[in-house]
Amino acid sequence: MNKQQHHFDRLDYTFKLLIVVALIITATILARDIVIPILISGIFSIVMLPVIKRLERKMSSVLAITLTLIFSFLVFSALTWLTISQMSALVKDLPNLESKFNALVDRVSSAIQDTFNMSAKEQNQMLKNSLASLGSYATNLFTATTNIISLLIQVPIYVFLFLIYRDKFRAFVLAFLGGEEDITWKGEVEGVIQGYISGLLLVTGIIAVLNSIGLLILGIDHAIFFGVLSGVLTIIPYVGIFIGATLPVLMALLTKDSLWYAVGVVIIFSIVQFLEGNFITPRITGSRVSINALAAIVALLIGGKILGIAGMILAIPALGILKIILSHTRYLKPFVILIEDTPIKPGTEPSEEQKPEE
């Protein structure tokens, strides 16, 4: 009877939890413009926490948080200035690239006409149809730019408030969990987020250096800019590096006489992508989050469906946090087996941490 009651309690708990999760997901989708800045701010708050704790030994909390935010703003401003200067150099070359771009379009048009037997009139009509939808894309781009500006304003405010009131959040969690004196998973969550973000920055730097070196060897114009851009875009898992490869490939087609330069760019980015996926990321960030590939892909798809690109970026650390929380729950510990990257040999039993409490 006790065993039957235990299984009934587990099913009841799981059913109620699924209802709560469904409501949270629905609310997140409906209020995504509000949720995204809050989630990003929460992650930044945890990343800054070690620095702020050290500063608080010598000064007040408000001053420590303010100085940290000012320093972060200066670093971000410097990176933005470097990016704008590189883009300015690229824009100066646009008049020289215009004629080459027109020549490239003519060559592509001739190739399409010879290969697919499509006349120039039909190609122009297809181009007009494509341009007809350009207005909606421009509107979406303007909306995205507006959202980014809004995000840059909201995040520092949220970060400041999260760090100021962090003791209140801790007291709330303690009261919500029934007055436990210690939250064993609190340190684990902080470690996962801090480790993942630091690892992600390191991976981004390595990818940027490797791509820049490869593009410099090929002699591609603005190689460092394209290399750094591709490194930053790797923050978007799986698809970012392909987006980052598009511009240098186009630059190679416009500025080089041989098609092999564009092929060389594709080869370089493919090699870097292989190294990143199989050696760099698993060794740097994989060990800090310990998420298997299947769970990561599913998390990316769900995150992208709920919050778009921001959801894809936040999916992996969110899954790492979920894994820690599940490992400390009474009935949901077995789900950790499906998420973690630890191999299980055939015939072996789950560890005690993965078994649900009786």
Task: Summarize this entry quickly.
It is built from 14 helices and no strands.
Can you describe what's shown?
- The chain is an all-alpha fold.
- The protein contains 14 helices and no strands.
- The longest helix is centred in the middle third of the chain and has 35 residues, at 184-218.
- It is globular.
- The mean pLDDT is 75.
Mean pLDDT: 75
Tell me the series of helices and strands, N- to C-terminal. HHHHHHHHHHHHHH
* Range of strand content: under 5%
- Oligomerization state of this entry? single chain
Kindly state the percentage of residues in helix. Answer: over 70%
Distance between the termini: 13 Å
Give the uncertain stretches in residue-range form.
Answer: none
Radius of gyration: 25 Å
Major sheet summary line:
none
Structural class: mainly alpha
Which word captures the global form?
A: globular
* Number of strand elements: 0
Number of helices: 14
Task: Give the helix/strand layout.
Layout: H1 2-30, H2 32-55, H3 61-92, H4 94-116, H5 120-132, H6 134-164, H7 166-176, H8 184-218, H9 223-233, H10 240-255, H11 260-289, H12 293-307, H13 309-327, H14 335-339
Helix pairs in contact: 1-2, 2-3, 2-6, 3-6, 8-9, 8-11, 8-13, 9-10, 10-11, 12-13
Keywords for this entry:
single chain, 82% helix, mainly alpha, 358 residues
